[in-house]
Amino acid sequence: MAKLVAMYGTPKDKAAFDRYYFATHVPLAKKIPKLRKYEVSQGVVSTPAGASNYHLVAVLDFASLADIQAAFASPEGQAAAGDIPNFADGGADLFFFETKEV
Amino acid sequence: MAKLVAMYGTPKDKAAFDRYYFATHVPLAKKIPKLRKYEVSQGVVSTPAGASNYHLVAVLDFASLADIQAAFASPEGQAAAGDIPNFADGGADLFFFETKEV
What residues in A contact B98, CB-CB < 8 Å? Predict the structure, then answer.
């Protein structure tokens, strides 16, 4: 299995971010080939010391790292990645990695 | 559902980190009450621009944010959290949040 984690810094207008994210970005990202599961944070993204600087975290599951790499290269993946600057004015940190259950 | 994401910065000695993490920390963390699933990254934690500054990412699934809060407060959660300074000399960023599937 493999995961793509997208962490969005606090935007200037949280309500506008949320509207755009759920109405426009999620439908685009859901078209990514071989995406198995797509979860997003609800409410505050916390740390043990209190609220984090992140407004939203998305966790996308794939079967393998190769599927994530193919997703990034696909037109649908390019469209979803290209959409990020349209709403993520607080920045976006993307990480991807193979996983194993322990 | 809810997730706890632990992101470990690159340690001084990666092999020593990995030995300790899998031999000592994972068994401690697996005792955390109501932990449903525990996945760890394998290999490089990448960003679209190349390798990240993180050596390992762990994603722990729980049924709810309340379960994560109870986990932190439990003796087993305290033991797992208290173990982090024993191996994470590259730092550890912990985030937790409620999730929904989209």
Answer: 41-43
